[in-house]
Amino acid sequence: MNGVFPPTLFTGFHYGVVGLGRNGNAAVAALLAMGATVQAWDDRETTRAALPAHPRLKVAPFTTMLGLAGLILSPGIPHHLPTPHPLATMARDAGVPILSDAEILFRAVRAAGSRARFAGVTGTNGKSTTTVLLAHMLAASGVPVAAGGNLGPAALSLPLLPDDGVYVLEMSSYMLERLDQLHFDAACLLNLSADHLDRHGDMAGYAAAKLHVFDHQHAGDLAVLGATLPDLTVLRRRLAATGADIACISGAETVQCDLYCTPHALRDHHGVIADLGAVHDLPGTHNRENAAAATAMALHLGMPRGAVEPALVSFAALDHRQKLVASIGGIRFINDSKATNTDAAARALACHDRMIWIAGGTAKAGGIEALAPCFGRIVLALLIGRDAPELARTLAHYGIPHRIVHTLDRAVPEALEAARALEADVVMLSPACASFDQFSGFEERGARFAALVRDLAAGPGGSAPG
After folding, report:
1. Which of 8, 51, 135, 288 is spaced 20 to 30 Å from 262 by Cα?
2. 3-class DSSP string for the chain
């Protein structure tokens, strides 16, 4: 196989695509390249106008869904809660399935005759790192691999892989709600904490969406479960009924798990898999959990045991996830902008004993109260964004020094000054809040932080990692 899907693969099929963002544009391009006809729509006129013309593409509002093989709805557009989008209702009334682009990728791979395997990674936190790490490990072992989905390239941007290839897909709860046939040979649910409850109704609905990652598994497959999942015993029993192998993983020394980490090693019941002493870009117990999950899946997918340690050592952390930006006079500036909720922020804060903490933005339900066990590590909090006053009230209640500085442009230089005065060796951007009050997303927020830090690092005593 040459990596390209056959141009007649979906000839005779007619698909609808609604929402022309990263996923939608990739879906339109891929479906047309595989011979389908497509009707596409987006409420934004400029987005519609940017779509290249094609003889089998119709860009127009939907007046009917009849005749569609499927409707690919942008992940952010609801089809159930909190209120179904009108086009989702129209599709449901017409009996047209609402599908994820990952579902279409699976169908295309199988229709093209490839037996490439699929690995799915989900969880509230850590799924991006685990996805990229697993892809890195497999590639280091010589396995043809393509990674994407909720992270990086959209699923339908990925190439056709040969029979020995592996697709590694990060799966959001939004994507998992829209699966039909997709079968993951290795699937992982890392953890669960409150998130996207408006979309799923409550934690039970959110958990149910995440558990779709295990749909269609059978004997010979692998289901990986994080040790902190609620009702883990019940979940193991439920998944065991499918015949799939089950691996429980932990980033701590939890010997009842199948893979777990001591302070210096990743182990299973056969002994040490990898010495973690030289692994620098996976700090903290949560990243060791990610490493354990990726290793369990990589071994299941054929990676030699002896290749695990070199792959972990050579892994480079993703941007905006506890990424060291620079050191200035021995003070490390760490970009953890991806920490948009308290669970993610707690994992980062637990890695350091004495820090200047930059936090704030649009707070999730409950604010930062859940971070109280970490507050003793904070010598000063600098608060930005819309909900800085709410965060300030919580910190004041616990007697934690803090200042409202409103913006990153003020926070970064003030953090350096405070770190020097208070003898803190870390400045951590781990906001515990969404970013949309001031930025287009956590990526823009993290990039702005990194740029401000690098400007400071260009002065005396600064150094950036090579």
Report:
1. 135
2. CCCCCCCCCCCCCEEEEECCCHHHHHHHHHHHHCCCEEEEECCCHHHHHCCCCCCCEEECCCCCCCCCCEEEECCCCCCCCCCCCHHHHHHHHCCCCEECHHHHHHHHHHHCCCCCEEEEEECCCCHHHHHHHHHHHHHHCCCCEEEEECCCCCHHHCCCCCCCCEEEEECCHHHHCCCCCCCCCEEEECCCCCCCHHHHCCHHHHHHHHHHHHCCCCCCCEEEEECCCCCHHHHHHHHHCCCCEEEEECCCCCCCCCEEECCCEEEECCEEEEECCCCCCCCHHHHHHHHHHHHHHHHHCCCCHHHHHHHHHHCCCCCCCCEEEEEECCEEEEECCCCCCHHHHHHHHCCCCCEEEEEECEECCCCCHHHHHHHHHEEEEEEECCCHHHHHHHHHHCCCCEEEEECHHHHHHHHHHHHHHHCCCEEEECCCEECCCCCCCHHHHHHHHHHHHHHHHCCCCEECCC
